[in-house]
Write a structure and sequence with these properties.
The complex is a heterotrimer of chains A (about 325), B (about 475) and C (about 280). Chain A is α/β, with parallel strands linked by helices. Helices cover about 35% and strands about 30% of the residues of chain A. The two termini of chain A are about 25 Å apart. Chain C contains 10 helices and 1 strand; from the N terminus they run H-H-E-H-H-H-H-H-H-H-H. The chains are: A alpha/beta (about 325), B alpha+beta (about 475), C mainly alpha (about 280).
Chain lengths: ~325, ~475, ~280
């Protein structure tokens, strides 16, 4: 898989403030990358630099392996963007608005393509309405329609569902998943972490201008939680169970409270059959066995907490 | 490397730029205000109507060629740092010491020649850049003014010719005075004889004496000065005195300028107000008229000059003359066009009419009512005095479009003589004002149409939902 | 891909972008009320002037006048020049303020294309208005029987170049300022400085001279020099200079004004592009 977005030492300084500090992003082709960070952490500036709206103080951005200075138009034609705020030409209708952008991107079969994307975002009925009459959610959907118009290879989405109702959120999620399944690269910045968990495969977390974590979704959770947790309920306490379980090589720690045992396990294979066999061999009876996993939100909070050490792959 | 650019751009930074510009405006206005204030304070010293006390100083008394056939007397005191002359024509600069004062009413310097008029000896040095190109010695000169008022030409006589002309003129004028004395005596005798004849009509009728004609040209006294004739350009002049030193106050800039185009200027005399003619001097001038009327056209030779330079030439002693006209041009009417031409008039239809120049006389109405008629002057009414003017008469019909041009007797059109005379439609004014509101109607139509279209769509959407 | 092919692709894309953005701007202007209001005002002022000319001919019975179409036309051009310079001075700053410029820059639009597109858009608006004005002034000549002098066609061409300088200057102002209010303030300040210089010079010229060697002539000389300098710096002076040259048939001076206008426009646009490249599109 080749790199779709690659930044090297990306830095932006306004006056004396370092807003973005040496960010090295690596977004591979076909990935759905979640770019997370608290407010004011430098996400939007980073996205602006990626899109060429803001000139970096230092560092380099490569999109599809090329810099904007060497392949500006070629690169820009392959990107679809939904910005944080929707700024539309109010005097136009949705149809006119999309026709303008379709011409700009030189989209073939413009009219049918416009109808198709409007249908996709559910605005077909309102296409001849002036945009000044559009609600926030409709604007967000129209921005999505504009971003999809030219069938881009990379979708950059900055808070794509912030103004949408649950139906809208679901619709956009379906679109994102559909685009992902078509092999398109998705780069999302959002605070709705539940949606990110459902749609993204890779996460980058930025805090105070620095990239503090970049890993696959599962990898990040595992690293933060120190592995998965197993909760076992026994019919009655089994003497020697703690020692036996500790001897298993994937078990990292054991806590026992009479009939209830909590295990921290590592590794990617399912540990439950081995644990079950070990307890049965000691004469015990397992009533229930559940796994507990850290959520993305917990991971995010943990990482962006000031006390956390840097958790980039390099740091680890 | 980028530092200077950065500084430049930071000056242009949005927050600061309006403030900087405002500061620049304020400084500028302050400068102007201070200049005004200072000027006003300077004016407080004396009333505007009083002449400043004169003082003796070096001046150039100038006789400047006007580009046509006349000369303009001028004065260049030390305060005037540049003298303007028409290139390739003789102009005269005579170095003098006289009493100079500023006359606020006409805003010009004047010389009190009667109280002091001392010629200054020496040679005039002319420099182009730093190269001395000519050294001129003073020559005798005199001006000749034709006594016929209709001739506007002035003659410049130089050296021996000046002396000879003056001497000839003095002889002629003395003879004229003697003839006039004889004429008055003959006139007295004639009156007596006439009285006798009236009392005794049978006797032979006495013959009236013939009034003697004055000399054709009046010649001024002979003076000495430098005859300057230079190609177009910028020069510096200074007077080197007999002691070898440059005379103080004699250094000046000398601008020799030439005309741009030549053509014909027209003076157009409307029949109902013959003392207030209109002028169509340049080829871009068009004469417009509203009603049926008769006009009399008088053509003049004309040349286009730099307006500032020509204003300075005509009003050398006025420091303000020409200010604000820099870079503009003007057509200058020179001498009237002589005989041997006719005016060709095209009226847009087939064929042209040819109008001959004629003499016209303005005859006042008799009685108490004001008014006059313009009639063609004939030899029969010569006793009424000389004709009022000479010109080409054109009868104009309203709404018509005429083109006139001057043609020589051998059929050649005089370059630059073509002019349009157009009858205007007065009713068009209100129509145009009303028509200028049409864009508002068009705009309202476009906006209403778009609005109504989207109202329908909104309505359909609402109905659909 | 060979380098020349890449360059040609960039040129085609740039041309396309300019065409699309400027066309949209033109259509948007033609569908807005501003165009029609300014058109009405710009025709009303010459109409009043022509009405007064006709009145003057009626009063005097005979009048020698020049450029009776050219002078009202220059008034017309001045009104459009002012409108378009204000409009262009708001063009970029307004889009920055509204954020719509960002949406354009998400796509295949670069600073050069954008600045040129906005410039072309305003010139296109002017050309449409000019077409209307040619019809109007032809009608004026037909109805009033006023002469449409030979300088009218050169003045038409000159007006395009003059408006070009005003638009280019407006765009630079718009790029320099981040808000519409500051760009308008900036433009009006510059315009007022040039106007103030003109008025001050005119006032001094009309002032009587009590003391010919006092401060007033000095002030006049200083203002004269400043006026001579600002003639080449001001975006508003080309029309007057060119009309003077056309009226006196000075082809060389006329050509110099055209070349100066073109060079001035290029310089302004170049500065605007560089500023936008350096500062980005964020307000």
């Amino acid at each position: 898989m080749s790199a779709t977005i690659q930044t090297t030492g990306l830095t932006k300084i306004y006056g004396k403030t370092k807003v973005v500090d040496g960010i090295d992003l690596d977004v591979r082709e076909g990935e759905a990358y979640a770019f997370l960070g608290p407010n004011g952490s430098g996400k939007s500036t980073t996205i602006s630099m990626i899109l060429g709206l803001v000139t970096p103080t230092s560092g380099e951005v490569r999109l599809f392996g090329k810099t904007l200075s060497t392949a500006y138009y070629e690169t820009k034609r392959r990107i679809g963007v939904v910005g944080e705020h929707q700024h539309l030409y109010e005097e136009l209708t949705a149809n006119e608005y999309l026709r303008f952008f379709a011409e700009l991107y030189r989209v073939p079969n413009r009219l049918s393509r416009i109808d198709s994307v409007l249908e996709k975002v559910g605005l077909q009925r309102y296409k001849d309405l002036e945009l000044r009459g559009y609600s926030k959610g409709m604007r967000q959907k129209l921005a999505f329609a504009r971003a999809l118009l030219h069938d881009p290879d990379l979708l950059v989405l900055d808070e794509p569902v912030s103004s949408l109702d649950p139906y809208g959120v679901s619709m956009i999620r379906d679109i994102i998943l559909s685009e992902r399944s078509r092999g398109k690269t998705i780069f999302i910045s959002s605070h709705v972490l539940s949606e990110i968990e459902k749609t993204c495969t890779k996460v980058g977390i930025v805090d105070r201008g620095r990239l503090v974590a970049q890993d696959s979704m599962q990898g990040l959770k595992n690293r933060l939680s120190g592995g998965a947790e197993l909760r076992i309920e026994l019919a009655e306490a089994v003497p020697g169970a703690v020692q036996a379980l500790k001897s298993l090589d994937f078990v990292r720690s054991v806590e026992c409270d009479g009939k209830n045992i909590r295990l921290k396990v590592s590794g990617s294979s399912d540990p439950r059959p081995e644990v079950s066999r070990c307890i049965v061999e000691l004469g015990g009876l397992v009533v229930s066995m559940t796994t507990a996993e850290i959520t993305l939100e917990e991971a995010f909070i943990a990482i962006t907490d000031a006390s956390m050490p840097l958790l980039t792959q390099e740091a680890v | 490397m980028n530092e200077p650019k950065r500084r430049y751009m930071s000056w242009l930074s949005p927050g600061r730029l309006p403030a900087k510009l405002a500061a620049a405006t304020a400084s500028l206005l302050l400068t102007v205000t201070v200049a005004f204030g200072y000027g006003a304070v300077a004016q407080e010293g004396g009333t505007a109507e009083q002449a400043s006390p004169g003082r003796e100083q070096f001046v150039y008394k100038a006789i400047l060629h006007n580009g046509g056939g006349s000369y303009i007397p001028a004065l260049a005191p030390p305060e005037i740092d540049a003298i303007y002359i028409v290139a390739n024509r003789d102009s005269v600069l005579s170095p003098r010491v006289t009493r100079v004062y500023f006359w606020p009413i006409t805003q010009e310097y004047k010389a009190d020649w009667l109280s002091a008029d001392e010629p200054v000896r020496g040679d005039l040095e002319i420099y182009q850049g730093s190269t001395l190109i000519r050294t001129l010695a003073q020559r005798s000169y005199a001006l000749g003014y034709p006594t016929d008022a209709s001739v506007q030409e002035t003659f410049l006589y130089l050296d021996d010719e000046a002396l000879n002309r003056l001497s000839q003129y003095q002889t002629e004028i003395n003879r004229f005075y003697q003839m006039m004395s004889a004429y008055y005596r003959d006139q007295e005798r004639y009156q007596d004889e006439l009285w006798e004849f009236i009392k005794r009509p049978g006797e032979k009728e006495p013959t009236a004496p013939v009034r003697p004609e004055p000399p054709d040209v009046l010649v001024s006294s002979v003076e000495r000065g430098f005859v300057v004739n230079l190609p177009p350009g910028l020069y510096k002049i200074q007077l080197r005195g007999t002691d070898g030193a440059v005379v103080e106050g004699s250094s000046k800039i000398l601008v020799a300028f030439d005309g741009y185009r030549e053509g014909i200027a027209y003076e157009v005399i409307p029949e109902e107000k013959w003392t207030m003619p209109e002028h169509a001097d340049g080829p871009e001038q068009v004469l417009y008229f509203a009603r049926r009327r008769t006009v009399y056209v008088r053509p003049f030779m004309a040349r286009e000059y730099d307006q500032f330079a020509y204003s300075r030439l005509c009003n050398l002693a006025s420091p303000l003359a020409g200010r604000g006209t820099e870079g503009t041009r003007t057509w200058v009417r020179l001498d009237p066009v002589g005989d041997g031409f006719y005016l060709q008039v095209e009226t847009g239809g087939p064929g042209t009419s040819e109008i001959k120049k004629k003499l016209y006389r303005v005859k006042q109405h008799h009685g108490t009512a004001l008014g006059y008629d313009i009639v063609e002057a004939t030899p029969a009414d010569a006793f009424e005095g000389s004709p009022s003017f000479e010109g080409y008469r054109i009868d104009l019909s309203p709404g018509r479009h005429y083109t006139v041009q001057l043609v020589s007797s051998d059929g050649r059109v005089v370059p630059g003589s073509r002019r349009e005379i157009r009858g205007v439609n007065l009713w068009a004014g209100p129509v145009l004002i009303v028509a200028s509101f049409t864009p508002l109607l068009a705009g309202a139509f476009v906006l209403v149409r778009r609005r109504s279209l989207y109202r329908t769509i909104r309505h359909e959407v609402r109905r659909g939902s | 891909m060979p380098r020349t092919a890449l360059q040609s692709d960039v040129t085609i894309q740039r041309y396309h972008t300019i065409k699309v953005i400027s066309s949209r701007g033109l259509i948007s202007t033609l569908f807005g009320p501003g165009f029609y209001i300014v058109m009405c005002l710009s025709l009303l002022a010459p109409s009043i002037l022509i009405y007064s000319y006709l009145g003057s001919v009626r009063e005097t019975g005979l009048a020698s006048m020049s450029n009776l179409i050219g002078t009202p036309f220059s008034v017309w051009v001045s009104i459009w020049g002012l409108f378009l310079s204000i409009s262009s001075s708001l063009a970029v700053s307004r889009e920055k303020e509204l954020g719509t410029i960002e949406e354009l820059f998400y796509g295949p639009v670069g600073p050069t294309d954008y600045v040129l597109a906005r410039y072309v858009e305003h010139l296109l608006v002017y050309l449409v208005a000019l077409a209307v004005s040619v019809c109007y002034f032809s009608m004026v000549s037909l109805l009033t029987n006023f002469s449409m002098s030979g300088t009218f066609i050169p003045t038409l061409l000159l007006s395009i170049f003059s408006v070009s300088t005003m638009v280019a200057f407006g765009i630079l102002v718009s790029v320099v300022a981040s808000k519409t209010r500051s760009s308008l303030t900036l433009l009006l300040t510059v315009a007022l400085i040039f106007l103030g210089l003109d008025l001050a010079q005119g006032f001094l010229l009309g002032h009587s001279l009590g003391d010919p060697v006092g401060a007033l002539p000095f002030g006049m000389s200083v203002l004269g020099w400043i006026a001579r300098l600002t003639r080449w710096v001001s975006p508003f002076s080309n029309l007057g200079m060119g009309m003077d040259a056309a009226a006196r048939g000075d082809i060389r001076a006329y050509g110099i004004v055209l070349v100066h206008s073109a060079a001035y426009s290029c310089a302004m646009l170049w500065m605007a592009v560089n500023r936008l490249k350096r500062k980005g599109v964020r307000a």
